[in-house]
Amino acid sequence: MQPITIIGSGLAGYTVAKELRKLNSEIPLRMITAEEGHFYSKPMLSNALAQKKTPEQLVTTSVAQMAEQLRAEILPQTQVTAILPHSHQIEATNQTWSYSRLVLAWGAAPIRLPLAGTAANKVLTINHLADYTHFREALAQAKRVAILGAGLIGCEFANDLQHAGWEVTVIDLATQPLGRLVPKVVGEALQQALQQLGVSWVFGKTVTHIDEIDSGYRLTLSDQSTVVAEVVLSAIGLRPHTQLATAAGLMVARGIVVNRFLQTSAEDIYALGDCAEVEGLVLPFVMPLMNAGRALAKTLAGQPTAVDYPAMPVVVKTPACPLVVSPPAISLKGEWEWSGQGGDIRALFYTPERQLGGMVLSGNYVKEKQALTKLLPPVL
Predict the structure, then answer these.
(1) CATH class belonging to 322-373
(2) Rounded to whole angstroms, how far apart are CA atoms 313 and 37?
(3) pLDDT (tens digit, 9 = 90+) per residue, 238-281?
(4) From the candidate CATH numbers 3.40.30.10, 3.50.50.60, 3.40.50.920, 3.30.70.2200, the one assigned to the domain spanning 112-234
(5) Is the pTM of this model over 0.85?
(6) Cα 231–234–235 angle (5° rounding)?
(7) I need a surface site. Which of 136, 178, 239, 367 has the fewest CB within 10 A?
(8) 180 burial class (0-12, 13-18, 19+ CB within 10 angstroms)?
């Protein structure tokens, strides 16, 4: 019998493998990853400085230990180059493997701005442990860090870096932090809290050029103003990996299109995590991934199980202004109502029928997370 094969060793891939082993200890299992294959928590990358964790300390289980625990063949630093659905095979350089069922858990890639200048290729992104290791090495020679993007990850890194002693400037075309996730009053509260910590903000502008200078890099903005930094970190979002899926003839939209059983348009091929689009939803967060991993493991073990997404608030790791965010569905009609002051705000999104459709809690109101989550509608 050919093994179930999982491509990707992030939280999505390992969750499926761990949950599958709880249900079936004998089925052959193979994992293939372009990374080193160690198990670590990717969400911890954006607050590792505050946790005083080195890149090496973030690894909780080595690839060899994972292979032993999962009774799996794990092939690290192996780049898959093609999927052949009709023959149930995958290819890498000078190697072909057969599979019984295939799980695509290879994640997403950071979106890169189209930048000009002599240092356009020096902009760092962090999507894996190796990226973070490179970032920490760059920080050792730096005092000033420019972050492109005031979204969730950009704000988390800004809080972590500024608190640890670096000078941080965050640049975003929006008018506030977390512009796509929270109402204006909450964004302003977060902006003020991080500003009091020392973070500088540049809103309503984009970076057009990055050039090397003696003191590091000069960032030229869309209004010709400049920012100087020794490290430039891009945190403007992720784009699901879909190239190999497209080449294999799988249905792709924003992500790899799957149904509630996480089945792609090809027989015996499944997808989950940051690369997948489940019933039109691309949710690059931990809780949707965990729910999908548990459901898919049951399906692979012979118990077809559709994934359910209950309300899944996201905890934003910005200690200067603690936040819990559960945005309303894009299609949901209604309006925000808020109360509180300073960094303590409760913002609730109500439909015309006065049903709770979303929430954002900051500061002391974070303690209401559990009670309010019970009132929110399921995501899927």
Answers:
(1) alpha beta
(2) 29
(3) 999 999 999 999 999 999 999 999 999 999 999 999 999 999 99
(4) 3.50.50.60
(5) yes
(6) 130
(7) 367
(8) exposed
